[in-house]
Each structure stands twice: as structure tokens, then as C-alpha cells.
Design goal:
By secondary structure, the chain is an alpha/beta fold. It has 16 helices and 22 strands. The chain folds into 4 domains: 114 residues, NAD(P)-binding Rossmann-like Domain (Rossmann fold), CATH 3.40.50.720; 123 residues, Rossmann fold (3-Layer(aba) Sandwich); 77 residues, Regulator of K+ conductance, C-terminal domain (Alpha-Beta Plaits); 96 residues, 2-Layer Sandwich (Alpha-Beta Plaits).
Length: 445
């Protein structure tokens, strides 16, 4: 497959890296330094130029391309790029946008803007944040199988009662699968006798209620299982979408926005959100609002520095869980190292969604684990593939090494994925897969 990617920032580079081994990839960017870097770091053809220009797209061979991905940081450029590509050929076009308004317009008429598939990074980021809220010790979470299945990644702290236990001893939750242990940068597929250590991160997959119970077991500091008080700091698009989604979950958040006009607008839009107009670093105002007693604080301001400051202030005041939006990917580990519970990067969640769409064998859902070392994917299995028609203990060895069956959804019900379980055609199966064999595994099922 010939793929043209316009925009070689964090999103475009990640997508190019995931496709370069198996496809003919061309990357276009206006930054000459970035183009030179890509020429040496990836097996791609890198071209300098304006991706919305018809001449540049002709040089990139868009007329013969199967897929065009517009992933610059500018919505209008991405839409113009997709529209221009349709003049040159019939490539399937994917546009990354930040503004939800563009997504809503495209949803009304899917051919709008010349875009075949649209990914909205602000909305995806808000969805990621809402999935994590309420799971103590969780650093990542995703929903699968229309909400029947949840994947969550937890960090095992020094005080966790799980430290020193084996997976067999910790596995006390019906339908919950211990899918991976992340230790010292490696992904380990757990056995029953694998021991959990302080500092480990463990990936579990199962029904949301079982994942929630596990979260409370993993984190003894969680006084209760209910998230009652959530502050969202920052009334930009991500903050607004986060508050809106929390409302849909039955949570009534409090949103802090410094700009009076924006605060008034948000108060009109969010009927079940208390909008507070003040500077989020005003400690007197925060004390008046009992900010320190919050279950969760989401820092969604315009800069990484502001989000770090708010998150650390929240921790100092006693907030149980802090989630910060981090626009610069290399800052994620720094944020978590200095005490922020979860750092969410909009570019990473966008790259995950676009990568899912670009798979030749499409998956229902995809998320990356441990900086792309492993993937959690949802697939609907067909009649004739390696997983169906035999117990899991027999079917898994047919696949490359590095696969765990995390959950099975069958006709809106969950089936326990044990060794003697037989997967049937039509089942939705959630798998944890080593990234090195993911393409091969997906092709086999």
C-alpha cells in the first residue's frame, strides 16, 4: 500500500514509524530539518513542501496513493490537503482536527471537506481522561466491546497489598485477565507464579466493575470507590469536552476558567457543571472551593507548564488523583516522575486512532502500551482463522509468541477467557499483543 503522510510532527512521525516496515510511505513536511531527520531515522521518502499545495502533493505521488493522512497541527491545512488530494486521485483520506465543530460538520455528511475519515484530537483526549477518572492508581484506561470491556494499566505502589503476591494470588476477580506486567521498560506476559513488585505496572482487562474492584485493591489509599468531586481546570476545548462527558456519566464537575467571557459561555453550555471564574493558581480561591478535598483534578490549560503547576499544587493540597494534559510528548515521563498521576498527550491518542484505521486488517479498537512495545486490540473473529474452533490453550500456540486473550464478548455478554474456552465466529476478542508481531497476528485472525 502506498501511503502519503502530510505533517511529520509527533502524530505523523509515529504513524510513519508504524507503517514504514510494511508499506511504501511518503512523508511531507514544511520543516527542512524534520525532513532530513526522517530520511535517516525511518525507511520513508521524505519531501519538504506545503502539503496543501497541489504541486507538492503531485511530487509526493498522491495521484497513485492508496491512503493520504493529513496530520499537521493546523485543522484548515489538513482539510485543504484532503480536498486537494481528491483532485489528483482517489486515495482514502484521513484528517486530524482539533476543533470538534469540524467533526460535527463531517458527521452530517461524511464526504464533507474531501475527508473519508476524521479524527478529533481534543475529543479523543477528553474521552481518555474520563475513562481514567475514578480508577485509583490507574495511569491509562480504554473501553472495548461497546463498553462491556475495560483495559486499565495500574502502577503498584510500595504500600499496595499486591506487592510480593503472585499473579495467581492476586487474581481474585471473576472475568478479569492479568494481561501484562511492565517492568524496567519490558513487557512481560504474566504466569501464575509471576511475582508483583513495587514499581511494576500491570495491565488488566475485564468488565468495568471488576477493573474498578481491582483498582481499589491495588491502591489502599483510595478511601472509597466513588468519584464525587472532580475539578476541571481550564475551559478550552479539551476542558469543555471533559466536563460535558463527565455530565453524561452522572458526575457534576466544577470547571475553573479565568476568562469571564469564556466562563459565562461555558456556564450556558454545561447545565450540570458549576463554572467558577478565577485564576487556578489563586490559593485563597481554591481553599474557598475546597479544592484540596477533590477526588480528581484535571489540568487542561493552554500550556504544559501551567498544567504541571496546577497538578503539583493540587497534590500538595491533598487531591487524590491528578490528570494533566501534556502537549509535548517527551514531557509525559517528567510529569509522572515529579508526582502527576497521569499525563495524557493528545498527539499520542490521535496517532493510536489513525494507526487503527490504517491497518489493512481493520481492528475495532487499538491502544498502545509502554511506548508502543505492546498493543491492546479488539477484533471480530471470522469463521476461518487461528483462534476459532479450538480451546484457547490450543489456538494461541498457532499464533506468534506474545499474545494474551484478555476478554471475549459474545452477543453482548462476556465469556471467561480460560484455557478450555472455545472462541466462536462473530466473537469480539480483546487481545494484548507484542508490537513486533501485531501485524502478523491481526492478519491471522
Amino acid at each position: 500500500m502506498r501511503v502519503v503522510i502530510v505533517g511529520a510532527g509527533e502524530v505523523g512521525s509515529n504513524i510513519a514509524a508504524s507503517l514504514a516496515d510494511a508499506h511504501d510511505v511518503v512523508v511531507v513536511d514544511s520543516d527542512s530539518d524534520r525532513v532530513e531527520e526522517l530520511k535517516y531515522s525511518l525507511d520513508v521518502l521524505a519531501i519538504q513542501g506545503d502539503g496543501a499545495s497541489i504541486e507538492t502533493l503531485e511530487d509526493a505521488g498522491v495521484g497513485d496513493a492508496d491512503l493520504l493522512i493529513a496530520s499537521t497541527d493546523h485543522d484548515e491545512t489538513n482539510l485543504a490537503t484532503c480536498g486537494t488530494s481528491k483532485v489528483l486521485g482517489d486515495a482514502f483520506t484521513i484528517a486530524r482536527v482539533k476543533q470538534v465543530g469540524f467533526l460535527r460538520t463531517w458527521e452530517r455528511k461524511s464526504s464533507a471537506f474531501g475527508v473519508d475519515f476524521m479524527v478529533c484530537s481534543n475529543l479523543l483526549t477528553a474521552e481518555d481522561i474520563v475513562q481514567i477518572i475514578g480508577l485509583p492508581a490507574a495511569v491509562d484506561a480504554e473501553w472495548f466491546a461497546n463498553g462491556l470491556v475495560q483495559m486499565a494499566e495500574f502502577e503498584i505502589g510500595q504500600e499496595s497489598p499486591l506487592v510480593g503476591k503472585t499473579v495467581r494470588e492476586a487474581d481474585q476477580f471473576d472475568l478479569l485477565t492479568f494481561a501484562a506486567i511492565l517492568r524496567d521498560g519490558d513487557v512481560e506476559l504474566p504466569r501464575g507464579d509471576s511475582t508483583l513488585n513495587s514499581g511494576d505496572r500491570i495491565v488488566v482487562i475485564g468488565p468495568p466493575e471488576r477493573v474498578h474492584e481491582f483498582a481499589l485493591t491495588a491502591s489502599p489509599s483510595a478511601a472509597s470507590g466513588d468519584t464525587e468531586t472532580v475539578f476541571v481546570v481550564g475551559g478550552g476545548e479539551i476542558g469543555y469536552q471533559t466536563a460535558r462527558l463527565l455530565q453524561e456519566r452522572g458526575i457534576k464537575p466544577r470547571l475553573i476558567e479565568e476568562d469571564p467571557d469564556r466562563a459565562r459561555e461555558l456556564a450556558e453550555k454545561l447545565s450540570k457543571t458549576l463554572v467558577l471564574q478565577f485564576d487556578a493558581t489563586d490559593t485563597d480561591a481554591l481553599e474557598r472551593e475546597n479544592f484540596g478535598s477533590a477526588d480528581t483534578v484535571v489540568a487542561a490549560l493552554e500550556s504544559d507548564q501551567e498544567n504541571l503547576l496546577v497538578s503539583l499544587l493540587a497534590k500538595r493540597l491533598g487531591v487524590k488523583q491528578t490528570i494533566a494534559v501534556v502537549e509535548t510528548g517527551e514531557y509525559r515521563e517528567v510529569f509522572e516522575a515529579v508526582g502527576v498521576d497521569v499525563a495524557v498527550n493528545p498527539r499520542v491518542v490521535t496517532a493510536e486512532e489513525i494507526t487503527r484505521i490504517t491497518r489493512e486488517e481493520p481492528t475495532e479498537k487499538l491502544t498502545f502500551i509502554e511506548d508502543d512495545r505492546a498493543e491492546v486490540v479488539e477484533v471480530e473473529v471470522g469463521e476461518d482463522n487461528a483462534l476459532t474452533g479450538a480451546p484457547i490453550r490450543e489456538s494461541i500456540p498457532r499464533l506468534p509468541k506474545g499474545v494474551v486473550v484478555g476478554a471475549i464478548a459474545r452477543r453482548s455478554e462476556l465469556v471467561s477467557p480460560r484455557g478450555d474456552t472455545v472462541i466462536e465466529a462473530g466473537d469480539h476478542v480483546v487481545l494484548l499483543v507484542d508490537a513486533d508481531v501485531s501485524e502478523e497476528v491481526i492478519a491471522a485472525i
